[in-house]
Amino acid sequence: MDITQQGYVRTDLTTDGVAHILFYHPNHNSLPSRLLSELTAAFTAAGQNSDAKIIVLRSVEHNTFCAGASFDELGSIQDFETGKTFFSGFGNVINAMRKCGKIVIGRVHGKAVGGGVGLAAATDICFASKWASVRLSELAVGFGPFVIGPAVERKVGAATFAQLSLTPAEWRTADWAKSQGLFQESFDTVEQLDAYLAQFCQTLCSYSPEALTELKSVFWQGTEHWDTLLAERAAISGRLALSEFSKNAIAAFKRG
C-alpha cells in the first residue's frame, strides 16, 4: 500500500462532552494530504456537534507526536499547484481549529517537528510531557515554516519564531517551549500529563458553553484574514518545494 494512504483520523466523544480528535501515521505520525483533509473535517464536525463541549487534539501509537509534512508525498510534488494544495492542507487544519467555535486543547506526548509544532501552536491551550521536544526543520529542506508561521508566532512571538525558523537542526526542550508560551504545562511523565488533562477537561466541561465560545472568539481576534494569509503562505512553500535545493534535500533526507 502507498504509505501516504496509511494511517487514520478518528473522533472519540466521551459521555461528558470531550471530543478527542486522534491521528496516527506509521511514519512518526507524519501528515499526508489525506490525513490533513480528515483532520480539517474532524474539527469542523466537532465544532458543529452540540454534544461536544471541548476538543482535545492528540496522536497515538507512536512515541512522536507529529513529524510534520509527509516527506513521501512532498518528494513526489512535480508542479506548483500540487505543491500549493499540499501545503494548504496545514492551513486548512489551522483554520478549522481557529474557527470551530470550541476550545481546543493540545496533548503533546512526544517530539513535534515542523507542522507538528504548528498543530500545537494552533490549539487554545497545550499540555506536554518532558519528551515533547520541538524544532522547525523546514529551512533545512529548502523552504520555511510559512503556513504554520502565523500560528507559531502568535504563541511564542516574532523573535522566538525567528530563532526556531533559523535553527532547523536544533531541538528545543519541552521546558523551553513552555517558557516561550508554546506549552502551558510540561510533565515528567505521560501518565502525569494524562491525569492533569483529564481533570482539566472535566473542570472545563463544567463551565458555560456560551462563555467558552465567546472566549474562543476573543482568543483569536485579529486573525480574521488568515484564510487568505495561509493560502498565500502555501503558495510560497509550493513554489520553493520545486527548487533544485529542496528536491535534493528531500531526497537526501529520505535516503537517511
CATH C-level: Alpha Beta
Structural class: alpha/beta
Distance between the termini: 21 Å
Beta-strand percent range: 5-15%
CATH architecture: Alpha-Beta Complex
Number of domains: 1
Strand order of the largest sheet: 1-2-3-4-6-8
Number of helices: 11
Please bin the fraction of helical residues.
40-55%
Seen as an oligomer or otherwise, the chain set is single chain
- Classified in CATH, the superfamily is 2-enoyl-CoA Hydratase, Chain A, domain 1
| Overall geometry | globular
Description:
The chain is α/β, with parallel strands linked by helices. The protein has one domain: 2-enoyl-CoA Hydratase, Chain A, domain 1. Helix content is 48%, strand content 14%. The protein is built from eleven helices and eight strands. The strands form two sheets. It has a six-stranded mixed beta sheet, with helices on both faces. α5 packs across α6. The chain is globular. The two termini are 21 Å apart. The model has no long low-confidence stretch (mean pLDDT 95).
